[in-house]
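Technical appendix A lists one of the benchmark inputs used to test multi-chain prediction within the project. The record comprises two sequence entries:
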Amino acid sequence: VADSNRTSRARPAHWLLLIALALATAVAARAAWLALTHRVALVLVLGPLAWLLLASCIAAAPIAAWSLVDAARDRSPDSRATWRSTRVVFTVLVIGWLAFLVWVQPFQLLWFEIAAGIAAGLACASVLAVRCSRLASSRAFRVAEISLISLCASLVLAELGLRALAALHPMPILARAGEGPRRTIERFRCAPGTLRFGFACNARGFYDEELHPLPAGERWIASIGDSFSLGAVPHALHYTTVAERELGIPIDNIGVAGIGPPEYLSLLLDEALPRGPSAVVIALFVGNDLVFESPAAGRPHPWLRSWLERERVLLATLPRRLSRLAGEREAAQELAHGEVLGAAPDAAARGQALPWLDDPLREPPSLSSEAFLRLETARALDVCAGDPPALPELFALLREARRVAGATPLHVLLIPDEFQVEDELWAAVQRRAGRPLERDRPQRVLGAWLDREGIAYLDLLPRLRAVTPLSDGRRHVYHLQDTHFNARGNRIAGEALAEFLAGQR
Amino acid sequence: MRGDTTMRRRNRALERFARLVGATLLALASAGCARSAERWGADLDSDDPFVRALAAIALCEVAPERGPRILPVLLETVDRTDLELQPQARAALARVAPHCLENLVRELIANEFMTLDRRAAVVGALASTGEQGADVLLAAVRGTGLARAGGLAQVLAALGLPSVRPLAEFLASERDPELQAFAARTLGAIGPRAGAAMPALRAASTSSDPSVHAAAQEALQRIAVER
């Protein structure tokens, strides 16, 4: 009677296990089919590893079928053994997920299906081992099993917890690739009233005076951008403020650090156009605005990607970001800009608190030399070795921006990367890149497209290259090892922008 | 008793199922269930760039004669860093090059926004075709004119030895002094490896056209000095 009761209690769990094993058999069989039919391509792409994968896939399917048959033949399932098998399946699948994140990147559906087939085979083999082997009842096996399942459950719960935290409490460090533009803006936008160089960000979180709807008939210009718009100089020295002074027309600076073209379109729609600007300037920083992922472009299999692409899994990205931040903190021997962002330098105090504003040669670096060169090289490889994959999407977004702007003129400001302006840095980047790079390619490609589309644009590269170098041979228009304009760079950009906008009247 | 019989029947059925799965896979493996060139060809139009790239790479092996159809996808793959299939695409390009030489040369002439990666891959693919590639390049120079195809001199020079015979023949047979000077300069750029073209260069150095004469003299000097 006791046996019969135990069996009836175990039956629902047993059915669950049977369903899981049937699914695993189907997944393993599909993987074997895919590996066999794609073997020509697999061998060309993966070399000898392809044969190992092929053998694994072919072995996985019968093993899965065998485990299914073995479980189905069990007429008196034991609830403990059934739950144990289920736990083993879960553990193997989580380990498979982690292995995929480490070794099988970037995500592609074919790789996923083959990996899933092999993981299914391994999970089924583990179930067979648990059901048939005496080793499975040993104490050592049980300890290992409990440790592993605890670890796997903790990892899954940690990822779920981080995602919940990211959803409830937007923070830049919890950003994930592929998020929607509005969510990204909320994550990176400054809190209203945040002090930057003593200047309070406005109620919308932008580094400018309050944005108020202006009386009809008054001309004003909206300038949209990323960290260059947020700026790393006192407000009075920011390029939009300089241009505003030179031009005599208000320029509203609508900028959020860490965003890209999809977010610019969102800012244009949500913040700029409803207030009826006379013209709009979109500032494109060629260093990183050509490399982005547009959610509108709809990459296939978004749910699978959200769990299987390393850049979208917080467990993978968060430790890296934290360690990089910690490393940078250690490397920063001198005072960094961030420490004076809250200071309120008036004209007199500025010389003492921020001496590099007037004399760039006295500036301490923001990033370590290694981190800065690594960043600049990665950017050069993104935009100077070839066309970034997102380029057609950038063009589509700019076309859409022009369409929604309607009669409001849309202009583009091309901001060069520092390696395009400083020759010494360019030489170092080339050495590190180890492959041929075309220094002006982004401006050449973007300029030709903007010309064809009839969108007026200002390329700052010639203006910045024309700057006379200082005593150390560098032009010093960017903060030291920081990638953003310093006061000198902002002044040149602001004057050039004012000239350009005056010519567009 | 009846329950036992049912159980036995069920177990037999399950065993048959397991055998069937195994036998089917074995049959598929032994029958060589590779995809046909048509199936791969259909994938060239997929929305997924990875599927397109994989199809192009596979087609280079199973149906390289479809070169002109495969070429645009391979060139796209060479440019894309996100797929991480660039080395494979370059190797595939070399396999398919003999079947789409004209298209490769047209790409070199017409695409002013060609990336450095793509250019290197195209030049590498042309180089792998040897003299055949040089012949097509020279035909393009003759057909398109130096104004548009002058840049091909660098490609011919980069091909090295395989360019020497076609360039020497081009120099000897061509009547347009501009094109003769082009061939002489390119042979000079190849350097000592162009030794086999010395007779054609000596003949050209006696040309009454000053530009041909100067280019041939300079090429002879470069080949002789570097030798």
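The radius of gyration of chain B is 27 Å. The first helix of chain B runs from residue 2 to 31. Comparable benchmark entries are summarised in Table A2.
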